[in-house]
Amino acid sequence: MSEPRITTLSEFLHHSGAKYRVFDMGRRVSKLSPDQFVSFEWAQKPYPLPFQRSALFGVIFWHPDKADKHYVWFLKFPLDEQGLLLQSARDEFLVMLLERVGECMLAAADGKQIEGALKDSPYTFTPREDKMAAFNAHATRSLALKPSSFYAEAYAYFTGKRPLDSWDKLGMQGVADVAVRLDDNQETLGLIETLPRIPYEPFNVLSTFLENAEPAAGIVEVLSQRVDVQLEKKQPDISMICACLRAASNSPARGLVDQMVKHVLKHPCSQHVEVLAVLSGRCWRSLQQNTLCQLYMEQLAHNSAGYEAFSQLLADLVFVPGMREPVMQALRHPERSKKLSQFVGKMFG
Asked: Is a pLDDT exceeding 60 seen at residue 256?
């Protein structure tokens, strides 16, 4: 009896005897469930977090008998207009993979062969340093492994046990580990107390990693307060506002995040392209509400860079699953401004 034909990466890994985890590496680093990944591979559902019309993800896998030896592949696949996987790309990738390592990869191949299997493949990529740190933090936590050796120092700093001017001694990996390990109540409370006093440089680094985590409501409250302070100034610090929005964007405290987004959208600073990019690229769940989406579209039409920025950010936003309907409703709103009407006419005319 012939072996079943392998048609997806998940089938290939399963057939090889491997255990694996998949993490999105596009808009943010976050774990994908097995159902999400399999549905995507079979082109049954759109990729949940598309980035630049592509699915970017990291796969960490290992053999159950050698659980201390992990392998990682970072893969990038093109998506169609609906956000579904282009199956021709997947098939091309699998043919190459099977030719190089065979079907029983983990049983027969050594580490160098496995790690080098995708060399020169058009479907691989190298993540940025911060994305790699976030991936490592998520992977070690998911696999119940210890955090990096930089964790203890970063934990001490962000919980107020080190001088606030000693941030230059922190390792990026340690900050990433702190961000994804905030479930401990004591650690969260320590960060809440320290957060308002942290200088901008370490705060900005922390915010980069909090967007890949799920910060608690108390942390979002502090971030919201920092935003409100900026909104009261004659010249708000755009970088600080963007850092706070990024840091809060993936929090399960949806109401608090929505309120922060609303405050920003009602301020003229939200016509700044950097703010608009963060709102659509990180806070899109808030924009699924029709009122907030309408506010966003008006500020986007009046953005500081004109029609080109409008069309680029809009094209990216409608590609996110769940965003097309609220965006189209906002664009068709009978009370839309003259500027928004002009840009809509230009885009669709």
From this structure: yes
